[in-house]
Amino acid sequence: MEYKDLKMEGYDLHLLKTDKFKTVNFNVEIRFPLKREDRFFMSLLENVLPLSTGYKTLKMRNISCAEIYDPAWTIKSSVSGNQSMFSLRSSFLNEKYTEKGMTEKTIEYLLKIIFEPKTDGNKFIEDIFEKEKKNRLNYLRSLEDRPDAYSLVRLQGYMQVYDFKPVTLEEMYYKTEKISSKMLYDFYQKMIGSSKFDIFIAGDIDEDEIIATLNKKLKISSTRKNSDFAYITQKTYNSPPHGYSEPVPNNQSKVLIGCKALNLNDFEKKYVFTLYSWILGGNNSLLFNTVREEHSLCYYIYSSRESLTGIMNIFAGIDADKFDEVYDLIEENMEKMIKADYPDEYLEGARQVYYNSLNNIEDSLDSLTSNFESEKLTGSDSVDERRKNISKVTKEDISALAKKVHIDTIFLLKGEVHGEKNI
Amino acid sequence: MEKKTFKNLDLDVFEETLPNGLRLFLCPMPRHEVAAQMTVLFGGSVLEFELNGKDIKVPAGIAHFLEHKMFEKEDGTDPLKVYESTGAYANAFTTPYITAYHFEGGDDFFKNLKNLLDTVHKPYFTDENVLKEKGIISQEKKNTLDEPRSVAYDKSNENLFENSYFKNSVLGSLKDINSITKEMLYDCYNAFYHPSNMYLTITGGFELDKTLDFIKKYYEDLGLSYQKPPIKISKKEPETVVREKEIIYKNTENKEILISYKVKTPNENKVITDLYFSLLLNLKFSEISDFPDITFNDENIITDVGCNFYKADDYYIINVGITVKEDTEKIINLIDNAINDKNYSEKEFNLIKKILLSSVVLLTEKVPRTRDSISSDIYLYGNVNYDIYDTYKNISYDNFKEFASKLDFSNKTITIVEKDK
What we know:
By secondary structure, chain A is an alpha+beta fold. Chain A has two domains: 2-217, CATH 3.30.830.10; 242-415, 2-Layer Sandwich (Cytochrome Bc1 Complex, Chain A, domain 1), CATH 3.30.830. Helices cover 44% and strands 22% of the residues of chain A. Chain A contains 15 helices and eleven strands. Chain A has helices spanning 38-48, 58-67, 102-115, 126-141, 147-158, 169-178, 181-194, 207-217, 266-281, 286-294, 323-339, 344-359, 365-377, 383-392, 395-402, and strands at residues 2-7, 12-17, 23-33, 72-80, 83-93, 196-203, 242-248, 253-261, 301-306, 311-318, 405-415. Chain A has a six-stranded mixed β-sheet with strand order 1-2-6-3-5-4, sandwiched between helices. In chain A, strands 7-11-8-10-9 form a five-stranded mixed β-sheet. In chain A, helix 3 (102-115) packs parallel to helix 8 and helix 10 (286-294) packs antiparallel against helix 11. In chain A, 43% of the residues are buried. Helix content of chain B is 42%, strand content 23%. Chain B has 15 helices and 15 strands. In chain B, the strands form three sheets. A seven-stranded mixed β-sheet of chain B has the order 1-2-3-9-4-8-7, with helices on both faces. Chain B has a five-stranded mixed β-sheet with strand order 11-15-12-14-13, with helices on both faces. A three-stranded antiparallel β-sheet of chain B has the order 6-5-10, with helices on one face. In chain B, helix 1 crosses helix 7 (182-192) and helix 2 packs antiparallel against helix 3. The model of chain B has no long low-confidence stretch (mean pLDDT 95).
């Protein structure tokens, strides 16, 4: 395995050479400072860009893709700490399993998607833009048909995480409706002209060939920016927690509990919070073993931590009339975390899961690439440092962190149908 | 052990059958991770069987219920905790054909392997722990009752089959779940959870000889001898569907359409038949078909077309689903005309072959995916398809066309989930 970081014109190139896999990963990461208004544009741009490829029809675009052995690719926008991220991530077969020249052709195909959209002067092509905007609005309008996704968007609309007001589903709909093809193209131009660019390529690659291809096919006019990545630190929370409930004619109710971990230090953010969330709401956790296994109140209950923001959400699907019982059990278990009132095996199990995930990084090109990216983009420690640091976390550390975790927002999608009578 | 090789894919598998009938498929790969799966040939579509000369009928959902209960042990051991103590991830699942228990881990492989074998060979069912599980599984079921797609899928199966047990959902109804007893679970366990009705697949970074010795020793100590696999009783299923169309009213913003075709199984090699159906559905509905442009340009259509196929007794079932705002008839006709159109382009056929060949190479790239691919070959075809690369590469357009020309798509059921007026 050989890692290399190269300063190119307008971007940083990160190469990971390994002959262990049959695939090659090619990711373009575009980063810029997080702003509230950008959220409305980014979600739409991630859908419009793949359609603005210059092929007359989608069928023609997809046939071109099939001709180069169907590389898998996605365009996604996301938030990473204090930054917005716009990414193209792809994976394709090594030439050994296809044909000579396919790597170059594939990289050319992918770069065109993100850097050479077909436009109508200074705007995206109106027809494509309007159709995709309608699709996006339809998606938002019909989110309620997917209760899990809908509940999460609702919780996010109520919970203050960044230093700006949270975005509600209604606002996302309303603001998306107002965007024109010119406005979106202006946003795209601004993003391309002022962001930090990183390109990651991993697999059994020929460095000289790759660099020659990139030099030939990629011209980034923006000067190379420095990274100003930072974690988001939570400083306040709602006391008492804010609660919201919405009735729906569903069989099952969804409970989402948004928690904030306040003022975490670097070690806590990277290590202690990880183990805390796993012990409380992982696969074989306190919540799983009490709410599901002992009390038979749900099929799923788990917690999910956002390490870059200090947020942890708890999710469960329950009967509406059992909400109080479930909530009390969640509070009880969070209290146990403060008092370190759980068997040592929970901590050791969580630690083993972490070790195992580190050990397995080298087994998949995707995890190797994503590990490489998190070291370069968000300042993750190296695998060896992580192994060393996680071994140092004690029950006392977890207890100290547990005192800083507070329930902030509760959302209940309240199902008001019982049984299968409605079908 | 017999060494077999996936041709053109740089991968070997070692096969062995133990005296008790357990089939082993061991595939060392240069990785740290190990993935293992014990597959039991007992799934959600088996609701009647013969045990000790007695005909036994059980409620729908029992294979899935049994899967949950196998994690309960008399000595209080929690298999999930054992896995977690080594850092491994573990789970289980039930399909209409099989129940499978699996783990993916790195360290303490033999501890995990013993745990996997203990999980499937040491049942402990009590009235109390069965009652407890009903609450959990009922919640799992309720989750599906609120999803328009799963509602449509379950209803479609009911309307496709007159007699076949495939008409029942793998989870069963809430009523079925509540009717299950510990005695029923033991009947199913005794009939199906025997080495001769199971197989074990292991892929990744493990030592071959040591692993084989460990498994042999485990079964010697357990003392299970060969037992004839149980007789699953199935019923004769007519070619026609039970109901051609049904509309279900629910609280939903859009209209969910599912068209399910019931096609008599063509008399061909199963691997080839599955490949032909893959090619057919890709040609009709994949990214290189006309549908991405149709769905993108029609404001009435909310989602892309989704499709799959599976084998149910003597039939192939082809499901085609789509979400629209209104005018369901127009879309149904569009899909129906597409599937009945017997014109194919050779150029597109060759492109689909390219796509499928890429997916074949990817089957052997990741440890869990390789395990899953080997495991599904066995329950679908009886053996691992080591020639898969060549099979896909050499498939002929003319043979495909001849196959497709004989297919009859006239038996179908249409399910629509829409808002109550």
